[in-house]
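re: ur question from earlier - yeah i can do the single chain one, its not a big deal. heres the input i used so u can compare w yours
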Amino acid sequence: MNDHANPAAQALRLVSTRFPHALGALLGGSAAEGRATEASDLDVAILLPDSDTSRREVIRHEGRLAELFLNTLADVTEFFAWDRARRRGTVLFIYGQGLPLTDPHGHVSRTCERARAVLASGPPPLTPAERERSRYVLTCYIDDLADTPAANR
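and the output i got, formated as tokens:
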């Protein structure tokens, strides 16, 4: 079956067939927001029992690329902290804003609540070095834009 019209159903089939032992799963990104196109990938967070291993996988499922964020129940909070610290909340946003696919025991729901709390706290303050680096990068982009002919903007 190649059901690109229903990414949630496709993602649920992926989880059910490849990870039948999962504690639950969510769909994130454009597919969860209803903005998926034929070329969109599936961003799927899969909560695993602690007997498994946290990892990331990219696979093709039913003709569609799928990016899998696999985290054990014990490790997921550590991944939230890592996402927050590096200011790239990939896993955080899937759990905080994603579409639940399966949650038979409430583990995903509780994990989503933790993700939303971390997101609400915002990123850590910039260090002076990070602030200077950001200022430098922004200034470089502004200079590049200022030097671009108006016809090319």
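Helices lie at 7-18, 29-32, 76-86, 90-97, 107-121, 128-146. not sure if urs matches, ping me
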